[in-house]
Design brief:
Layout (H helix, E strand, L loop, with lengths): L1 E11 L8 E4 L4 E6 L6 H13 L8 H4 L8 E9 L2 E11 L3 E8 L2 E5 L1 H11 L3 H7 L1 E2 L12 H12 L1 H84 L2 H120 L15 H151 L5 H40 L5 H23 L4 E7 L12 E7 L12 H23 L1 E3 L1 E5 L7 H14 L4 E5 L11 E4 L2
């Protein structure tokens, strides 16, 4: 049994987490994760499938899980042991150092990189994504669980658990080899046909060679007569060519050609010098034009600079005057604002005194003047009429002070209003100054643009006149050079005609000499052929070859017939395995063994969860097309209500069935694939369970925790969960 022991999962800048968060895996314990919504409990579980497969149970991909505050440097990782071999997987997204990538390490050494390369390796080392989601992780708010999936998805998960797709590959390989063997067998049969054809051909060729021996002597005489005729014909041609050669002198023709070439070279030099002189004259004129245009440009820029400096000086003077006025108004405004602050402070102090005096007056009035029995507001003892009269007098003085303070407060308030009005006038004056200076800037800018535009127009007119003069001068130089060029070109044309005539005569002479050489070679060849033909004897090797070929074909046919029998026997063996690896063969046997195992395990788990429900797995029989067990059926039954369909079950009943099913699929995976995992992850497993079923499930998980680290996220039934450790999330 291969053991996969998860050791650690971690995340940084993943969903709601910013700082690094590491969860060590503790086999043999049940860990309960609790806390309010939105604190990142489910993110801990999401980290497992996201790190391995690049997607969370609810379909979130890399761009969806990067922390929204940091927006970069998302990093998740998982560490585990495969037997004694340590593995690490690190997934990065929008990371400053690693970019977007996945790195898989073994024994501390990276050996695979990139999502497309790493994911198949993860599925080979662990399990495919769908198996992880149905055997190791019970996730909330995903589409459906195994028992409620469509037939095709149930079939896919079941086939992956059973590794039935491997047998499809085995069958394909057996079919491929059987097909290859059929091709080889057909090739051998074709070889037999070819060998028989060769045998027949050899017998025919033997008869033909015998006849050829008789015809050889007759043909030899005819060929000798033809060679004699060719020899005489070649000799006549050779005599005619030598007569032409004597009429033409190669030395004289060569001398005439050299003289003609010399005259042509002189003409070409003159033509070349005409172009050079013309180009030099044009270039000189263009250089002078460019220098003159540069002078015009420099003068234009100087005029622009003078105007710009003049306008800038005028604007600067106006801005300085504006700044002095603005600073004076700003200073006055600041003084008024400071005075307002002081007046406000004085007004508040006066208001405090008024309020204090009014409270003191009210206390005397309520407790002494308007009360049935006059009492001291301080010691609560009764007072006599003399003291009452003094209190009346004291209240009159307090009222006078209040009135005086009120007048003072009104005077301060009026002063503050006057200051505010003055401050508003200062602000209006500052805005008016700003509008004036803005108007000056626009006027000066428009004036500057107009004067520059006039300078630019004058510059363009001057350059235009200069270019016209240069064009006329260049045109005159071009016309003069073209006239001289035409005269030299006509002279060169006459020389070329003379050269062509001489070269044609030389070519005729050279062709004649080549023909003489060729005919001489042909004559020598015919003489050799004549001598060889006289010595030639009939070759009997072909007759011997075909006799040997006939013997070899007979032996080869005998060997191929034996090979055909051996290949037929091997084909029968491959046909057996092709049928064995089909859905009606070994996969059918495995399913026959797996269904009772699954029914036994799911019954065991349901018995531990109250014993009220039963689940059984079944497969279909052969279809009309001949396919077997192409679908898995899940049968449900409630012994209390007799409900036998999933739609008739409540949420809590469905939850009980799903818990038993995920544990059963996990056991089947361990049994079939020979691999055991040390972790189970349950997100809101108790969401729809009552207290009794929650206790049953908690007790069951306690029983199976021996070699597994069980992590549970829950908001409910926390008291019923027999947890070894509780992680409180905030």
């Amino acid at each position: 049994m291969r053991k996969i022991n998860f050791q650690e999962v971690g995340m940084e800048n993943f969903k709601g987490y910013i700082d690094p968060m590491v969860l060590p895996i503790k086999p043999g314990t049940i860990t309960l994760i609790v806390g309010p919504n939105g604190v990142g409990k489910t993110s801990i579980f999401d980290c497992f499938p996201f790190s391995y497969y690049g997607i969370t149970p609810r379909g979130a991909r890399p761009d969806d899980v990067v922390n929204n505050r940091v927006k970069k440097n998302c990093h998740t990782w998982v560490k585990w042991l495969d037997g004694d071999v340590p593995y690490e997987l690190h997934r990065y997204h929008k990371h400053s150092k690693h970019g977007n990538t996945v790195i898989l390490s073994r024994d501390g050494t990276p050996y695979m990189k990139g999502h497309n390369e790493v994911r198949p390796e993860v599925e080979r080392l662990l399990v495919p994504q769908k198996l992880f989601m149905n055997t190791l992780l019970f996730a909330q708010q995903v589409k459906t669980f195994f028992t409620d999936l469509p037939d095709s998805e149930q079939k896919e998960i079941f086939r992956k658990v059973m590794k039935l797709d491997d047998y499809v590959l085995f069958q394909k390989e057996a079919s491929k080899r059987e097909s290859e063997l059929t091709g080889i067998l057909q090739e051998v049969i074709n070889e037999i046909k070819v060998s028989k054809s060769i045998l027949e051909d050899s017998e025919i060729q033997i008869l033909i060679c015998s006849k050829q021996a008789l015809d050889f002597e007759s043909d030899k005489k005819k060929v000798l007569d033809q060679l004699d005729y060719q020899l005489k014909s070649f000799q006549e041609k050779l005599d005619k060519k030598k007569e032409i050669e004597t009429k033409l002198s190669k030395v004289q023709l060569t001398t005439e050609l050299e003289l003609c070439n010399e005259n042509l070279t002189k003409n070409r030099l003159k033509l070349s010098s005409i172009n050079i002189e013309s180009d030099q004259a044009k270039s000189s004129i263009e250089v002078k034009r460019d220098m003159k245009e540069a002078e015009f440009r420099e003068s234009r820029e100087k005029k622009k600079d003078l105007i710009r400096i003049e306008k800038e000086t005028e604007l600067k003077k106006l801005e300085e005057e504006h700044l002095i006025k603005k600073e004076d108004l700003t200073k006055k405004s600041s003084n008024l604002e400071l005075r307002n602050v002081n007046l406000e402070s004085q007004r508040r102090e006066v208001m405090k005194e008024i309020i204090s005096l009014e409270k003191q007056e009210k206390k005397f009035v309520d407790n002494v003047l308007e009360a049935d029995v006059s009492t001291c507001p301080t010691c609560n003892q009764e007072i006599d009429q003399v003291v009452v009269g003094e209190i009346v007098e004291l209240c009159g003085k307090i009222r006078s002070e209040i009135e005086e303070l009120t007048k003072t407060e009104v005077g301060i308030t009026d002063s503050m209003k006057e200051d505010q009005e003055t401050l508003h006038e200062y602000t209006e004056e500052i805005l008016k100054l700003q509008k004036e200076i803005d108007g000056h800037r626009i006027r000066i800018s428009e004036s500057y643009k107009e004067e520059v535009r006039a300078i630019e127009v004058g510059f363009q007119e001057t350059v235009k006149k200069l270019n016209k003069l240069v064009e006329e001068e260049i045109k005159k130089i071009t016309q003069d050079s073209q006239k001289t060029w035409g005269e030299l070109k006509e002279e060169s044309k006459e020389l070329m005609t003379q050269k062509d005539d001489i070269e044609k005569k030389i070519i005729v002479l050279e062709e004649c000499q080549k023909d003489i050489s060729k005919i001489s070679i042909d004559i020598e060849g015919v003489r050799k052929d004549l001598d060889n033909k006289k010595k030639e004897e009939f070759d009997s090797s072909q007759l011997k070859h075909h006799q040997k070929r006939k013997q070899d074909s007979e032996m080869n046919i005998e060997l191929l017939l034996k090979k055909t029998a051996d290949l037929g026997e091997l084909k029968d063996i491959l046909m057996f395995w092709k049928e064995g690896f089909s859905s009606a063969g070994i996969p059918s046997m495995l399913i026959d063994e797996a269904i009772p195992f699954m029914n036994n395990r799911v019954s065991h788990y349901l018995d531990r969860i109250g014993g009220r429900y039963s689940v059984s797995f079944d497969t279909l029989k052969a279809t009309k097309a001949g396919e077997f067990r192409d679908k898995i059926s899940v049968n449900l039954f409630d012994s209390v209500t007799w409900a036998d369909k999933r739609v008739q079950f409540s949420g809590g009943q469905i939850r009980v069935v799903d818990i038993a099913t995920i544990l059963t699929l996990g056991n089947l995976q361990e049994s079939i694939q020979g691999v055991e995992f040390n972790i189970l992850l349950f997100d809101e497993i108790f969401d729809a369970l009552d207290e009794q079923n929650a206790e049953y499930v908690s007790s069951l998980l306690t029983e199976i925790k021996k070699d597994k680290a069980i992590y549970i996220i829950s908001h409910k039934n926390i008291e019923q969960i027999e947890a070894d450790e509780v992680l409180q999330m905030y």
